[in-house]
Amino acid sequence: MPPRLGYLLPTREGVMEGNVAAAPLLRLAERAEALGYDSVWIGDSLFDRPRHEPLVMLAGVAARTRRLLLGTGVLLPALRNPVQLAHQVATLDQIAEGRVILGIGISPDQPGIRAEFAAVGVPFEKRVGRVLESMRLCRALWTGQPVSWDGRWHLENIVLGPTPHRTGGPPIWMGGNTTGAMERAARVFDGWFPISPSPERLADDWRQAQAMRAAAGRAHDPFDAAIYMTIFTDDDPARAEARIGAFLEAYYPGRGEMMKRNQAWVGGPRAAVAERLARYAAAGVTHFVLRFAGEHERQLELVAQIRAELGW
Predict the structure, then answer these.
(1) Which of 14, 33, 252, 303 is buried deepest, with most CB atoms within 10 A?
(2) 184 falls in which pLDDT band (50, 70, 90)?
(3) Residues 6+ apart with CB under 8 A from 100
(4) What pLDDT is attached to residue 89?
(5) Confidence of residue 109 (pLDDT cuts 50, 70, 90)
(6) CA 54 → CA 14, 59, 102, 256, 266, distances in Å?
(7) H or E segment at 244?
(8) Residue range 222-236: average pLDDT?
(9) Whether the Cβ atoms of residue 46 and residue 80 lie closer than 8 Å to each other
(10) Over the stretch 269-300, which tens digit does the pLDDT of each residue have?
């Protein structure tokens, strides 16, 4: 089965550029659907990397589209109360009629992220256990059955309504390049969502993830391998690479070069972009989530053409 192609809406970039209007983002989502993309995605941050709130924005996208899958790339569940989160995601999935994918992350250890945790009164050091328990609780609430819970949160015979459109709730994909993230994805969740810097690294990690999944007795359960990739198509390779470098530095001030070394990206002519995508697909990617380094309308069209040439 050919890999699916997703598009990261530039909610962060709009805020960076001083343009916070939602309407252009919704139009980009509609354009992506018209061009045959399979999904649209939105990242998450309270104020470290300011952007539109992902679940609210995806509700707007859901109302304007009919076919696109709608993903969070990635949501930070530890910053949210899980009962409220379960309610929000269930409502979003009802609006989208079962098209939601919940990409989640643990959060890296950085000053800005720690400040976000402090702002909402959540201990940063306990975030891994908090995320895992939060997702277990969400899944329990999504059954529509009475839930009693005695852990970080205390519930007595709580019934969530509405439940998600998709029975049992949306698939949950775990983000992150670490072995711990891979293992959590394989043993607990429905997909793995890294930013692997090379197809070779991804192929090795994907084999490990599949072995972990088999060891957990889940070899036959659906399991997606996504990749988060920054991309810019341009006939001039040097210009494309410089564009990506400048984009990453603006997106991650002071860490752009480091992020360029440690995450998936491709810049250059269409043939080079096609070759990179094909190599990742051969390594096991089932779903691409593409972040364009500007010129979104043009890049959407060019990558749609590349996809057609690849026969996907």
Answers:
(1) 303
(2) very high
(3) 58, 69, 70, 71, 89, 92, 93, 164, 166, 170
(4) 98
(5) very high
(6) 14, 9, 11, 23, 25
(7) helix 237-251
(8) 97
(9) no
(10) 999 999 999 999 999 999 999 999 999 999 99
- DSSP H helical segments within 23-141, as ranges? 23-34, 54-64, 82-96, 111-119, 127-141
SS3 call for 50 = coil
Spell out the domain ranges in the chain. Answer: 4-170
pTM of the model: 0.97
Tell me the mean pLDDT in the region 19-23.
95
Distance between CA atoms of residues 45 and 63, nearest Å: 23
CATH number among 2.115.10.20, 3.20.20.30, 3.40.50.720, 3.30.1490.20, domain 4-170: 3.20.20.30
pLDDT number for residue 296: 98
> Which parts of 62-216 are beta strand (E)?
69-72, 100-104, 147-150, 154-158, 172-175, 191-193
Looking from the CA of 259 toward its CB, the CA atoms found within 13 Å total 18
pLDDT at 132: 98
Name the pairing type of β-strands 264-268 and 224-233: parallel
Q: Stretch 57-82: mean pLDDT, rounded?
A: 98
For residues 84-106, one letter each, b for 16 or more C-beta atoms within 10 angstroms of the residue's C-beta and e for the rest, the string is: ebbbbbbbbbbbbeebbbbbbbb
User: By percentage, how much of the chain surpasses pLDDT 70?
Assistant: 100
Give the residues across from 218 on adjacent strands: none
The token pair that represents 213 in the structure block: 């999944």
Asked whether the beta carbons of 263 and 193 are under 8 A apart, the reply is no
The whole-angstrom separation of Cα 222 and Cα 288 is 17
Find the Cα–Cα–Cα–Cα dihedral 67, 73, 78, 82, rounded to 10°: 0
